Amino acid sequence: MKVAVIVFPGSNCDRDMFHAAGEIAGAEASLVWYTETHLLDSVDGILIPGGFSYGDYLRSGSMASTSNMMHKIQEHAEKGKPVLGVCNGFQILTEAGLLPGALMRNKNLSFMCHQEELIVEDNETIFTKLYEKKQIVRFPIAHGEGNYFCDEATLKELKDNNQIVFTYKNNPNGSVADIAGIRNKAGNVLGMMPHPERAVEALLRSEDGLSLFQSMIANWRSSNAVNA
Amino acid sequence: MRKVRVYITLKQGVLDPEGKAIQTSLHSLDYPEVEDVRVGKYIELQVKEGADLKGRVAQMCEQLLANPVIEDYQIELEGAR
User: Does the beta-carbon distance from A107 to B15 stay under 8 Å?
Assistant: First the structure.
């Protein structure tokens, strides 16, 4: 499976994502600068890493969401290509409208950087197949604006369609319904604040993130068995 | 050319922790009369005169300047009656 890690000006988790998806999980990963939109045509999955794209000007993710790269990613997402956005990547996906809701300042106004326990609410997505339902996993968080917000109608829709993929066991940031990660209706776009790419080796104090990348790769292999 | 002022604030009902912190500080500075604080953004645009100027600025707010999920916006045109 070929995956592109998108690099915007100000992305800073791109190399971690590249390392996790490529060297650890075994995908054929490449770093793609945000102007190289044509390179997306030849990949099977798109990873939008964390960081501070465009210096978080206006709102986190808002500048990147208007880029040609995001328009292109939207086209690929509509065709069903897997898209994972982590941290700033999640913020970009909500700003671009690929996922509902918005990410606001943490309730305590502080940037938080530590490990959190998450609950896998849905293990039937292409990103979470290798987890148990309700499994507790440990991923680091590192964000100042991870407080997920949506109105009640949207929350109901998220619940009705099983779009809530990860929740926090001990909500650190004030997110509505303890939401840590959600998917789109079709199931091929996942956005989450915690960092699975920083939890793929024992050295990092958790390997729980590895299954996320492996799920995505295994899903691709099984649906492309003939060509694989 | 017309100066356009855009004010962006969090929607009513959306918690504004920054506003709350400022309110607490104002209280500790002995301004107990402050009952609520909402923090927002102020954006100034210079826009060429044209048809539906205000409507186009409203579109800019919807698409980029504000996030309609959490924010309200208010547009003021300088010199407008």
Answer: yes
